[in-house]
Each structure stands twice: as structure tokens, then as C-alpha cells.
Amino acid sequence: MIIAVINCGSSSIKFQIFDMQGDAVIVDGLVEGIGEPQGKVLLSYPRMDDGEKHEFISEICDHRSGLEMLIDEVTQSAAIPGNAELYCIGHRVVHGGELFIQPTLIDDEVLAGIRAQAVLAPLHNPANLVGIEAAMAASPETPQVAVFDTAFHHSIPRQAYLYALPYELYQSYKIRRYGFHGTSHGYVTRTAAEYLNIPLQRFNAIVFHLGNGASVTAVRGGKSVDTSMGLTPLEGLVMGTRSGDVDPAIYAYLEANAGMSVGSIDAMLNRESGLKGICDDNDMRRILERAQEGDDLAQLAFDIFCYRAKKYLGAYFAVLGRVDAVIFTAGIGENSVEVRSEICAGLEGLGISVDPDRNSKRGSPLEIGSHDSRVKVLVIATQEELEIAQQAQQCMAQAESV
Ligand code: ADP
Fold first, then answer.
1. What pTM was estimated for this model as a whole?
2. Catalytic positions, please?
């Protein structure tokens, strides 16, 4: 069974095709620089020619032409056997609001629903919609399934998802915590429970997704019960260019004292803050190199990043009471020995201790806790596209069984 997954960002498209027998990636594609004079299509076929990367440079005026280029190239390759049929296309959709809490087969009504959630995710949902519409145009007979980033968090209880604002704002404007990175948190939670051989319904964990965007989730019985991102992906941990938690009074203060508009403060908090705001760089690899060379601001950015994460770890430990595992995933979580070690440092009192030797190894799942660490500490590589493919497959199976 062949399933394609499309993850459309504002100027890029991630594209994978899976043979669901063995969860094998047969096509791995990336389109970058959409709308810029020089766009790029990168394609590889892991089962063929040693996974060599093919690169095409051309102007890619919009998402539709980017997707068409990808489809043309893939069709000409021998990556997909001639008689194989595309079972469905799974789409990542960032915001499902309160409307979509599970993978959903897309029809006109669902498209309208996703469009309606765009007020909650103005940077993301419109790009996701463009991807869906382009795929529908390119492959009109193929069922399309939307998989929502917010869905894993629909189990968060009321006291954790509501802000202490006038209740009327929730009723009228749906202002509440939604949480994001749900496919990633869900995937690594399940993978960790399987690896540790703990039934998912009894599995409690604190999951750190630390990439350019970063969030942490408290998982009880395999379900999300709290998460650091909120109404939008701005809240919570320190990120590449996003501030995470700040005092909301900053808006009024900067407006009164720096003459900044709400729009410019919002842009600053999203694009000029976080690691970049402190040390003018949002790449953790370079920050670590600079810190090692004695650069004070790079060290400070690292310290603030890890301190905020540690604070959430403590808070979520208190929320859960019993924790089976602390899990690290995504670019920084999977690769940075230093970040993992610093976040867990000094937490022996909570039963968490990292073994330096194990922490320096690579792999997934990788156990990095010391032998006497009561709480397991794991590194698990996230596979958001595979998770989307699996959820799309389940959604199709349910639809067919009705
Ligand atoms: P996103 O998908 O949110 O764009 P990723 O999950 O790819 O982000 O993570 C990007 C981050 O991972 C960057 O800050 C990058 O510096 C960091 N990263 C990647 N490899 C390493 C490494 N070996 N050591 C430290 N950080 C790393």
C-alpha cells in the first residue's frame, strides 16, 4: 500500500511517499524557496541508487507548481512500481481548533472548517490549504486525509487549557491552549512505551520536542494532559526565533515606552527573539561552538534555553506525580548531548540522572539515563511524516468499514 504525505509550510513543501509494508520511505522530497527567483527541488529515492540526492534549481512561483514538479519527477522515476496505486494522501494541518480532534477525510465541508481555523494560525493553515488544493487538483481521484498538529492535545483538561481571562473570551473567540507538534509528541510517546514495554494506558512521560520550534508535553496514560505551546506556537519554551513565555504586560510597556505597534511587537516575539534575540543566531550547533570558544552571549542563550526547559520539566513532574520517562526528540533533542545533559542536571532528587557515556552515543531509541536513574531518559527520533501516513491509513480503514 502506497501513501503520500505532504507537509506544506509558508515557502516550502516536505513530501514523502511510503510503502506501508515495512513503513519504508520510497520517495523523499523537499521544495524550498517557493515564490523566490531561485527555488530548489530536492529528491531522493532511498530504495534506489543508494538514496542519492537529485537537485533541480528553477523558479517555483507557487505551491501548486512546486507540487507538480515533484509529481512529474517522481512519475518519471521508477521509484513506484507501475501497478501500484496511491491509496491516499495525508496532509499535515497545523491548527484543527476545537473542530478537528482526529484525522479527517477531506471534503468541501472539511476544507471550509480548516479555512475557518486559519484565524487561529494565519501563518500555517493557509499554506496547508494550498497544499491540499494543489494535491486535489493534481490527483483528483485520490482520497485526501488531514492530520492535525493540535489533535493529540485534545485530551488536555479544562484547568490546563483555559487561561485565566474573562471566560467570555473563550466562548466568543475560542481563546485557549491548543498545543502543537502533536503528531511528533504522539509518535515518540507510543514508540517509547513500546520500547520500554509499558502499556500505553499506564505510560506517563515528559516529552521534549526541541527543534527550531520547541514544545514540551506532559503525558499521562499515553495522553497529553498539558503542553507548553498555547493559543499559538509562541508560548512556552525558548525557541530559535520565538520568545516563548513572557510577561503579557510587555505589549503595553513597549507600546507606551518604545512606540511599538502590536503588530511589530508580535513580529519581534515570533521572529527576532528566542536564541536569535539573545545571541543573534538561532542554530544550536553554532551557538554551542561559540559558547565553547568563550562567547558570553552564546553561553547565555544556551543557559536561558535549558533553564526554561528545566522549569517545565519540574512543573510537569508535579502535574504527573509519577513519571516513567523523560524523552528528547527533534533536531536539538536528538543531537545535542550538551542540551540534554544540562536540562537533566541536578535532578537526582526527582529520580532523573543522565549517564555521560550513554548520552554521548547516537541512535534511536537511545537510553541515556544512568543505570540507577528511577526515571528512564530516552532519545527518540521523531518521524512526523510516517505518523501522518499511519494516521491517514487508519482514517481510511475506518471510513471504509462504515
Ligand atoms: P524544525 O523542524 O523545527 O525546523 P529541527 O527539528 O530540524 O527544526 O531542528 C533544528 C535545530 O536542531 C537547529 O537549532 C539545529 O541547530 C539543531 N541541531 C541539528 N543538529 C544538531 C547537533 N548536532 N547539535 C546541536 N543542535 C543541532
1. 0.94
2. 149
